[in-house]
Design brief:
CATH architecture of chain A: Orthogonal Bundle
Oligomer: heterodimer
Helix content of chain B: 25-40%
Low-confidence stretches of chain A: 1-19
Number of helices of chain B: 8
Order of helices and strands of chain A: HHHHHEHEEHHHHEHHH
Radius of gyration of chain B: 19 Å
CATH superfamily of one domain in chain B: P-loop containing nucleotide triphosphate hydrolases
CATH architecture of one domain in chain B: 3-Layer(aba) Sandwich
Radius of gyration of chain A: 21 Å
Structural class of chain A: mainly alpha
Number of strands of chain A: 4
Largest sheet of chain A: 2 strands, antiparallel
Mean pLDDT of chain B: 84
Largest interface: A-B, 42 and 42 residues
CATH topology of one domain in chain B: Rossmann fold
Largest sheet of chain B: 6 strands, mixed
Distance between the termini of chain A: 33 Å
Number of domains of chain A: 1
Helix content of chain A: over 70%
Mean pLDDT of chain A: 86
CATH class of one domain in chain B: Alpha Beta
Strand content of chain A: under 5%
Strand order of the largest sheet of chain A: 1-4
Order of helices and strands of chain B: EEEHEEHEHEEHHEHEHEEH
Distance between the termini of chain B: 35 Å
Number of helices of chain A: 13
Amino acid sequence: MSRRTENGLASAAQSVPVVKGDPAVALGLRLLSVGPLLILVLLVTGIALVTPAFLKPINLGNILAQTSVIAIVAMGQQLVILTRGIDLSVGSNLALCTVVGGLAFQATGGTLPVILAMLFTGTLVGAVNGIVYVYGRLPHPFIITLATLSICRGLALALAPGHTTMRGMPDAVAALGSQTLFGLPLGVFVVALVAGLLLILTRYMVAGRWIIAVGGNPQAALGMGIPVKGVLVATYMISGLCAGIGAIVLAGRTDAASPVYGQLLELDTIAAVIIGGASFLGGRGHLGHALIGAVLIGVIRNALNLQNVEVFYQMVAIGVIIVLAVEADVLRSHLEARARVLQARGAA
Amino acid sequence: MTAPVLSIRHAHKRFGAIRALEDVSLDAWPGEVLALLGDNGAGKSTLVKCISGIHALDEGEIRLHGTALSLASPAAARAAGIETVYQDLALFDNLSPAQNFYAGRELSFPAWLPRPLRFLDKAAMKKTAAEVIDRLQVRLPHPDAPVAMMSGGQRQAIAVARATVFARNIVLLDEPTAALGLREARKVLDLIARLKAEGNAVILITHNMEHVTELADRAVVLRQGRKVGELKPDASSKQDLVSLIVGAET
């Protein structure tokens, strides 16, 4: 992520003022702002030196294909976390989307009904999350999205014939897994499409500015006449929609729908957002964080795979990295407070 | 400059058994700083909240240029050209000054789309914000950086500047210097003086008598919800003001 000015997406750390009097604080903030990207570059370089197989096009293609679902859903999760919320339902939602899509395929045999069914299901679950959270006056979205995590998984298992995987997807959807363009899996282009649309929303549209403002100061947003409730519902709907898009990509890649898809996807996406450098307390973060975080998780998993590290230790590794990322966030807040004090002295 | 911008007439406001405002009347004139004084609980903040649309008066009326207003919400007050700078600033830490100025009232296009779906007119917003910041001589070393990184004084200056962009009639300032150090407070006071010089009507709530005698053209003193005095603050009347505030008859 390059430095930008006048940028709705930019985190505070991305346009760090040059702090007079204490270059260490400014340097620390700068390092933290590029930290995740720096780690990604170092990691890729290091792994490539140790394991030459890592850089083979087929392996890189694999990483991107495996990362694309996490990346798409993480971008929705990022918007939710930006508004100081959390969406635990994305994994189950994704499974339910694939099952509804699979049922639509069995019923109609068409492509469009399958795609629309998945997108609609995802958005609907997001709407339920948002509406119950906002109009049910819940203090935090944790509980409602935990509830829909359970509800969606249960519904997906109940709806799937035989409560198990349904083989077969329309050719156009299956192409997402089997076809490549310019040597890249098609899923990567879906990631790019979603990123492009969300970039337009958050950088250039009023609704996106409102999402950022609500994340920055919900109280002030209300006072300034921003329709906070509507903004929050829309944010959860976008997260649900992203789960639906992720469902299309995953169903396409596996040529199947399954009620057991997306297990722990909520953790992967939350981890991606946090590891990528967004604040887990909300108010700060942009799409780049979700994308970098998703790729970081993909690269770490892949590298551990290539080194024949057992999958249990991969889970341990991701957990440790989450702790480090959260600590980096805490350190950043501390340095910013320090920078403010210096700013006040410098301004006098 | 012959008519008051804002007139409060016989304002009453009760919260349960507590009479927060009782028969308060005052006028605010263009190009004038009106200080609103009183001890804690005297009703200053209640009055400001009534003018800025947060509370509705139980009785009495608020007139803008002689016309009675009903201010049902903060949005209605802002639409009427009444801007308020609150103690807690109400800034968005993750937005730049220009973005803060227009938060909730972004300039956007095309007009035929519903507001949330319109595109931001970033260039126009940035230009206006830069002009105001320049005009008010607020110095920001990094005008495009999010305000999270700015000092208390810079943030207060941004909040005051934001109010002046939209205030066509009156700016209310609720203890704008309370959280600031001496030097930063000085800058905000200079800013208020410039608002006045530009012909704005300013209502200033403060506890600081030095600031009152320096800046205010008139001072209205509230005590236990009643207006107990109105006078021109200067060095000689400072003692009278303090007596009015604390209720010691001299």
